[in-house]
Amino acid sequence: MRAIGLLYPVGMFDRFWASGVERLTGAAPGLLLPGSGAALVLAYSARFMAISTGGIEARFACIPPSLDHAARMLGRTPTGAFLGIHLPLSKTAIASAGLLVFVDCMKELPATLLLRPLNFETLAAHLYGEAAQGTYEEAAIAALLIVLIGMPPDIVPNGPGTRLTRARPAVKPRDPGAAAT
Between 20 and 30 A from 142 (CA), which of 49, 61, 70, 79? Predict the structure, then answer.
């Protein structure tokens, strides 16, 4: 639904821009934004902004204000404090937000079908087209690629050596006969 709501403002801006170009050059450029990737990027940005900002804002909320005060007392500007303190402390949150948005953009279908340029297909659009035609064998390749591309962002943060996957030492059960001797 967001893609349909985006068509009107993008079309209005495109008509405004095209009329200006036509007044200056005398040639009508036609509609550029709805047929380009710009409308698709705008739709993806509007759709996935909440996913990315939620994790980043949560990480920024964990940074104590005393670090800002200390940086200001040491002569850092607000930009310097952001680049020297906030950005290094939030690198993992920014990277994980980027990975989440990447995986969700790869799976997004409605906005892609409405706003994509001609002769441009994402894996989700290709999968939908093949499944609609009933050629499930061809659709399986795109589905498998979506799964394979979506796996590394899930595996890397929880890979070997992280707290979530470390094996706990095995605890041997007590032998009841050993205590009697």
Answer: 49
What are the tens digits of pLDDT across the range 82-100?
999 899 998 888 888 888 8
In the numeric block, the tokens 């095209």 are attached to: 18
Structure tokens at 173: 């059960």
Length of the chain counted residue by residue: 181
* Gap between the Cα atoms of 10 and 12, Å rounded: 5
pTM here is 0.64
Q: Which residue has the tokens 């939620």?
A: 54
H or E segment to which residue 114 belongs? helix 110-115
Token pair listed for 162: 């992280």
Token pair for residue 81? 């404090």
How many beta carbons lie within 10 A of that of residue 132, not counting itself? 9
* pLDDT tens-digit series, residues 98-115: 888 888 888 888 777 777
Rounded Cα–Cα distance for residues 121 and 141 (Å): 14
Nearest Cα neighbor of 115 from 20, 5, 16, 30 is 5
Q: Encoding tokens for residue 75?
A: 């002569």
CA gap 96, 52 in Å, rounded: 8
